[in-house]
Write a structure and sequence with these properties.
This protein is α+β, with helices and mostly antiparallel strands. It has helices spanning about 215-235, 245-260, 275-280, 300-305, 310-315; strands spanning about 5-10, 15, 20-25, 30-35, 40-45, 45-50, 60, 70-75, 80-90, 95-100, 105-110, 120-130, 130-140, 145-155, 240, 285-295, 320-330, 335-345.
Length: about 350
């Protein structure tokens, strides 16, 4: 087993993997962190498997749903934008949420490598702080790619940056989401199709719980739930209960909008939110959905929704009993918010 850190300097390198060219300029220094290193943190179903083509003869699989991988002791010489290259394996196109120093996770789509034994490279730029950093990979709504290694380039010309959104004002991790509210036509409660849908699986096939999202995402989701119930209390409505299945559906929609760059209550395939709720295993009698894009905090998004008649009507609908909230950041750092409210049939 190789050491988890490999430092290389003064090498001009061009590598082709899975149809993706990766180039480093002459004199660029790099530091490699193996995914399977003992100092890293594996949780849920994430685990190490052998891999003859991997740099350390192993890689980490099982990332996503309940599984997560956190690279620890990732060292930056100085605070600021840093070029990262991720070597991964994924026979299908998959999504991973990447969180730097517990910031709000960025949702990124990893192209298929077309075979479990064929590697690919994803290049991004993250904002790191000087000294030790953590870089976490998860996907609470699906399976993420297997990871082999993370490589940091300490100089050279980086690609276009992918900013990191954050909860706090921690130096070197700066929020870049637009502060301008942008949200859809107000949605209103709908009734399920009495005839059902052949695309809807039975409740028994849906997951009963969601994987743990990055800490910052979970804090934002809990913050929205708290503010929603505060507004409902003022209006004389009972507090909404956070429901795992609605939460799973909300997280999936925010992540999907972030990765595929759309903003709608209906997916590009035409799947409406009522079907998404049913697919998550929640058998509803009445339901509503609020979405928003660009707001930086739970307070900001609640202000946008409460200033819109349709969104406010959903929040203050005393007929709703359950709640699910999901948040994800797109590749520019803009936050996508989804709020689902419903009652069981």
């Amino acid at each position: 087993m190789r050491r988890h850190v490999l430092v290389v300097g003064g090498v001009a390198l061009v590598t082709g993997v899975a149809g993706i060219a990766v180039a480093a300029s002459a004199g660029a220094g790099t530091t490699t962190y193996e995914a399977e290193a003992a100092v890293n943190t594996l949780s849920g179903g994430a685990h190490i498997v052998g891999c003859k083509l991997c740099s350390g003869d192993s890689r980490v699989t099982g990332i996503g749903l309940l599984g997560a991988l956190t690279f620890t002791n990732v060292v930056a010489e100085r605070a600021g934008s840093t070029k990262l290259a991720l070597t991964y394996y994924s026979p299908q196109t998959r999504t991973a949420q990447i969180s730097v120093n517990s910031s709000v996770a960025i949702a990124i789509e990893f192209p298929a490598t077309r075979a479990t034994s064929r590697p690919g490279t994803m290049r991004i730029v993250a904002t790191l702080k000087e000294g030790d950093n953590t870089v976490a990979f998860s996907n609470p709504v699906g399976v993420a790619p297997d990871l082999d290694k993370l490589v940091i380039t300490t100089d050279g010309t980086p690609p276009a940056p992918i900013p990191t959104a954050t909860v706090s004002a921690e130096p070197g991790v700066n929020a870049t989401a637009s502060p301008v509210p942008s949200y859809s036509t107000p949605p209103y409660p709908i009734q399920p199709d009495p005839g059902g849908s052949s695309a809807v699986p039975p409740a028994s096939s849906a997951p009963s719980q969601t994987g743990a999202p990055p800490a910052a995402n979970a804090a934002f989701e809990a913050g929205v739930a708290t503010l929603v119930n505060a507004e409902r209390k003022k209006a004389g409505c009972a507090a909404l209960r956070v429901n795992d299945r609605l939460t799973a559906a909300a997280r999936a929609q925010s992540t999907d909008m972030a990765v595929r760059n759309y903003f709608s209550h209906t997916t590009p395939e035409g799947v409406e939110f009522g079907i998404r709720i049913t697919n998550a295993g929640y058998r509803w009698s009445v339901a509503g959905e609020n979405i928003a894009k660009g707001q930086r905090t739970p307070a900001d998004v609640m202000t946008s929704w409460m200033n819109s008649a349709g969104h406010k009507a959903n929040i203050l609908n005393c007929g709703f009993k359950d709640l699910g909230v999901g948040v994800a950041a797109d590749s520019t750092g803009a936050l996508l918010w989804t709020e689902l409210m419903a009652s069981l049939s």
